[in-house]
Amino acid sequence: MATTKTTQTLTEVVEELSTDESIKGLFHQHQEGNPLPSGEALSEIVQLARTIIFPGYYGQSSINRSTLPYHIGVGVERLHKLLCDQVLAGLCFSDESEEGMQTREERREKAKVITNNIVSRLPHLRKLLATDVEAAYNGDPAAINFGEIISCYPVIKALVNYRLAHELHLLDVPLIPRMITELAHSETGIDIHPGATIGHHFTIDHGTGVVIGATCIIGDNVKLYQGVTLGALSFPLDANGNPIKGIPRHPILEDNVIVYSNATILGRITIGKNSVIGASVWVTQNVKPNSKLYKGSHIKVEELINGYGI
Questions:
Q1: Which residues lie below 8 Å from residue 82, measured CB to CB, with a gap of 6+?
Q2: pLDDT given at position 72
Q3: How far apart are CA 95 and CA 99, in angstroms?
Q4: Buried-most residue among 9, 57, 282, 307 (CB within 10 A)?
């Protein structure tokens, strides 16, 4: 009797969970033959990228100068294959809701072109990440050498993910860039949207709890501390009351800005170059260049926003 009741309950639950109303907006219907994005494959791609960009610190530890081309060659070849498959999966995932937009052959060819482009950018990414390592080292008196920065500092791990994901984002690859940055978010506590634009010599001290929104623009030689939020203040709504997508809504930080721990900077405002934002400060208005804004500071807001206009 109990068994019959259990079977009936399970059947009713399955039926309810399978109704069109229940799954509306929550169900992705896979098309036969299309690859699916894989978190496991993307994790391997990230590890390969770290190994290629920082050889000897990640991956094969016995690498030396004479075997370097071989190890990098193996890594690049493996990364190319995995990334091509994942880019294709992202294209298929996005395209499945729009039947007939592209054939599988067209998507596959597009994935190859995108992947070739990304792989060709690896030398550029290494140069850019080298500036981030330098910034982290110069900005932390506790750092012993570059090796410690590369091996231990969460910002470097997060920035490898971000800078790779940003390149994919610029090429309009769906879903995959966000999955890559979310891997770093889970690993380091640093949440950088792949759509953000970040200049060279960027660093985050400690890093835990930092949030950088999708439309942020960050200049060169910028330093953030833990808990900093670069977020949106409000969301303009469409006629149906839904937030309008794609509009600039996050801060712009010009060159040489420092933002201390737990500061919150919201909205499409500009923090002028060479400015310092103190710990736990809430900023929703423009700050002119060369300003210092601290909690409890005597500096008037009008003085800080003078010259920018809102």
A1: 41, 44, 45, 48
A2: 93
A3: 7
A4: 57
**DSSP assignment letter at 170:** H
pLDDT for 298: 45
Alpha carbon distance 291, 62 (integer Å)? 49
Q: Phi-psi bin for 264: left (phi > 0), alpha (psi -120 to 50), beta?
A: beta
Cα 118 → chain centroid: 16
Residue 282's pLDDT is what?
A: 95
According to DSSP, residue 58 is labeled B
Least Cα distance to 210 among 191, 183, 182, 234 occurs for 191
Which are the contacts of 224, defined by CB distance < 8 A and separation ≥ 6? 203, 204, 205, 210, 258, 259
Indicate the Cα dihedral angle 303, 304, 307, 308, nearest 10°: -140
Whose CA is closest to 183, among 217, 156, 211, 158? 158
Using DSSP's 3-state secondary structure scheme, residue 231 falls into strand
DSSP string, 145-159: -HHHHHHH-HHHHHH
Q: State phi, psi for 197 to the nearest 5 degrees.
A: -110, 125
pTM (two decimals): 0.89
User: What tokens does 214 get?
Assistant: 């999708």
Cα distance between residue 227 and residue 211, in whole Å: 8
Residues with Cβ within 8 Å of residue 98, at least 6 apart in sequence: none
Give pLDDT, residue 308.
Answer: 44
| Distances from the Cα of 207 to the Cα of 234, 237, 265, angstroms | 25, 32, 16
What pLDDT score was predicted for residue 1?
64
pLDDT at 95 (0 to 100): 61
pLDDT, averaged per 10 consecutive residues of the chain (310 residues), comes to: 84 89 80 82 97 90 86 95 96 67 86 98 98 97 96 97 98 97 98 98 96 98 98 85 87 98 97 98 96 73 44
